TrEMBL record:
This is Nicotianamine synthase. It holds the Pfam family NAS. Transmembrane segments: none annotated. The keyword S-adenosyl-L-methionine applies. The keyword Transferase applies. GO terms for molecular function: nicotianamine synthase activity. It is an enzyme of class 2 (transferase).
Length: 258
């Protein structure tokens, strides 16, 4: 029975990898990844394939389609803010923003933060927009991205809103020469190490990760990847929200705060 169960598990893993590879290959043949019927259908198929819980560690695969097509992790969109809910995965951002705020609120009981930095915000900073609009309505968001054109699009997106245009600031900043914080785990680790050196002691770091097959969709970051920080919470959603969430605190003078 044990051997049969192991064989079935191997077959399921091979089928999962085959399905994900096929979807990535289909996406890579498209001329553009801007929202369209074909693009939306393929991304939806990819998400639905990776959501079910499956005991797979994508970081240990010898052939990982995620590494073959890293450019498929994100693309640029330019929509007026009043039509932002037409973005295919806007609902997921709303749910993720609510989750992140709920987790974060457990560690900011004294007062709402006056400033939040978001690194790698991109041309459509949905996370900042959702948090600023729905949860942190007095907080100023400093959005950092090395791509000047991405920041220009993002700024244009919120400029017509009298509130967000004042609280959403965009900085053309090179952080450790990393062009996109979400590109891969190695780049994220470089940024984390940089933040560990320069963040104020006791300040909070929230970052996104993934779990199981969802690692095909987003780079996996483990608590062990956070030297210099005390990990306070790790949450792995089991519903349609793709990202796991980690919250950590910058260690004061090398000593964890209990």
């Amino acid at each position: 029975m044990g051997s049969l169960g192991s064989m079935n598990s191997c077959n399921e893993e091979e089928l999962l990898i085959q399905n994900v590879s096929e979807i990535y290959n289909n996406l890579s043949t498209l001329e553009s990844l801007k929202p369209s019927k074909d693009v939306n259908a393929l991304f939806t198929q990819l998400v639905l394939t990776c959501i079910p819980p499956f005991p797979i560690d994508v970081t240990k695969l010898s052939k990982n389609p995620f590494q073959t097509h890293p450019s498929l992790w994100g693309s640029s969109y330019d929509f007026p803010l009043d039509h932002i809910d037409t973005f295919p995965y806007y609902t997921n951002y709303v749910k993720l923003g609510r989750l992140e705020y709920t987790i974060l609120s457990n560690y900011i009981t004294n007062q709402i933060p006056n400033h939040i930095a978001f690194i790698g915000s991109g041309p459509m900073p949905l996370t900042s927009i959702v948090l600023a609009s729905n949860h942190l309505k007095t907080t100023t968001f400093h959005n950092y991205d090395i791509d000047i054109s991405a920041n220009a699009l993002a700024s244009k997106l919120v400029c017509a809103d009298p509130d967000l245009s004042k609280r959403m600031l965009f900085h053309d900043t090179d952080i450790m020469d990393v062009t996109n914080v979400g590109l891969n785990k190695a780049d994220k680790r470089k940024v984390i190490d940089h933040l560990a050196k320069h963040m104020a002691p006791g300040s909070l770091l929230m970052l996104r990760s993934a779990h199981g097959a969802r690692g095909f969709l987003y780079p996996i970051v483990e608590p062990s990847d956070l030297p210099g920080f005390e990990v306070l919470a790790v949450f792995h959603p089991m519903d349609e929200v793709i990202n796991s969430v980690l919250v950590a605190r910058k260690i004061k003078n090398g000593v964890k705060q209990y």
